[in-house]
Amino acid sequence: MLRGKRAIVTGSTSGIGQGIAAALAAEGCDVVLNGFGDAQAIERLRAGLAERHGVGAHYIAADMVKPAEIRALVKSAAERMGGVDILVNNAGIQHVAPIVDFPEERWDAVIAINLSAAFHATKAALPLMTAQGWGRIINIASAHGLVASGEKAAYVAAKHGLVGLTKVAAIETANQGITCNAICPGWVLTPLVAQQIEARARAQGIAVEQAREDLVREKQPMLDYTTPEKIGALALFLCGEAASTITGAALSIDGGWVAQ
Ligand code: NAD
Q1: Ligand 1 pocket, mutate which of 8, 16, 142, 162 (most atoms under 8 A from CB)
Q2: Which structural domains are found in the chain, ordered by start?
Q3: Is the N end or the C end of the chain the one with fewer CB atoms within 10 Å?
Q4: pLDDT digits (tens, 9 = 90+) for 195-210
Q5: Which of 69, 74, 190 to probe ligand 1 with, by most ligand atoms within 8 A of CB?
């Protein structure tokens, strides 16, 4: 379905981004991977996608805190793949603390990676998409882009901002063959959430298994974690023809979290 299309997925060396990159590659899309991690593991991931799906798979190590590196990522991705059709702004970090204890440096980092990086990447990719009259921008926001929780000031602010950025990009590109949407997952079992589960188990002196169950029960009516594969399938749907008039939307995939 996406043979010949070319995608950048930020933060795709792990978790949801990896799931999305795999889903795109499985449909024949060339992909640029990005994110931190062990060099050998990243190379295995890259080579695996290329071999399994017969697509071009590249890795570009831009730090999403740095606007110049983000611009260089988009430029170099366009050079290596011959263009950019799909941009998935997925890289993200979390920090959990009450506002009065929230380290300024963590605030800046969360806003930079979860929000500003999407602006810089979108700004760099849009001229390419506009020139070819086709593009898909998918921003991985969160249930926390729509509702708040305590102790996540920077994350909630960044994700609400990302949903806003999504709407503006959708309006500005509405008649250019481009769509821009946000995906708002609830709990997904990835290393980002595993950290929170372990911290909870330590703080409460309970088993990790119990903490995993408690975390989901606290927010979601449905007690299942979403998987990166399911987020990948939703991203794929947004790239398809059936979704060509879905733009500016914030699509929940959250076990009923924000329905409450
Ligand atoms: P993860 O920790 O498994 O993966 C995060 C990815 O971002 C990794 O590849 C990491 O290397 C990369 N990254 C982090 N900082 C970076 C930087 N400065 N430059 C480049 N890459 C960087 O996390 P995840 O759970 O897969 O989260 C992916 C996205 O999904 C995030 O935006 C997160 O906020 C969002 N999200 C996650 C959940 C969840 O429950 N896991 C829920 C809602 C939204």
Answers
A1: 16
A2: 6-186+227-250 (3.40.50.720), 188-225 (no CATH)
A3: C
A4: 989 999 999 999 999 9
A5: 190
